[in-house]
Amino acid sequence: MAAKQSPSQQLVGDITPKLADLTDDVLFGDVWERPGLSKRDRSLVTVTALTALYRTDQLRFHLRTALDNGLTKDELSEMITHLAFYAGWPNAMSAATVLKEIVAEPDAASGS
């Protein structure tokens, strides 16, 4: 039986196997495991950057991860509202739409 593929392997492993490996081994295996920031804080920083840069494809994964890492829907909502003034209204509105979809998912992490 084949080992379960990581999200990175599932997403791009067939077309860019090295990129998927680097994502798994360096980004998530090393950077996300460094002790200088909690995973919760790393999620907040990552979601903020993805919102500001209008990277909605990656934002979906990282909003789910942020909820799993202890951020609440209300905290993420507040972050998005705050960013509207610094990163642009369209970016915040798009992020709010993505967050709304994610918290409506049946298996979404709870937290208000």
N→C terminal distance: 40 Å
Instruction: Give start-end ranges of low-pLDDT stretches.
Output: none
- Write down the overall geometry: globular
Helical coverage, percent range: 55-70%
How does the helix and strand content classify structurally? Answer: mainly alpha
Determine the number of helices (DSSP H or I, runs of at least 4 residues).
Answer: 6
The biggest beta sheet reads: none
Number of strands: 0
User: Taking all residues together, what is the mean pLDDT?
Assistant: 94
Notable features of this structure?
mainly alpha, single chain, 0% strand, 112 residues
Task: Write structural notes for this entry.
With about 110 residues, the protein is mainly alpha-helical. Helices cover about 65% and strands about 0% of the residues. It has six helices and no strands. The chain is globular.
Q: Concise description?
A:
The chain has 112 residues and is mainly alpha-helical. The protein is 67% helix and 0% strand. The chain is globular and about 45 Å long.
SSE layout and pairings?
Blueprint: H1 7-12, H2 17-28, H3 39-52, H4 56-68, H5 73-87, H6 89-103
